[in-house]
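Predict the 3D structure for this chain.
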Amino acid sequence: MNRTKFATRYYSLYIFNGEYCTRSASSYLNAVEDLEDVAKQGAEPLGIYDLHDWRFDWKLKDSTQQQQYQDRVLEMTNSLRLKHGEAL
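Done. Predicted structure below.
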């Protein structure tokens, strides 16, 4: 079985004190736990981004807010791909 040369990297995206923030995690479960932790501190969880698959899983409490954050989340995920050399 072939392995990729880099491990899948996950990022938790959230809003804290009006600032958009990211936190890296080594697994999806760790990213979920990170979002739960920041939510307890008053942050608004947006979702989890899978850098390898370029997939974003929304974790909003109110799914009707997705449209409101969509452009900013796209900008953040593109920035993460650029940072890791995988831009479109």
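The mean pLDDT is 86.
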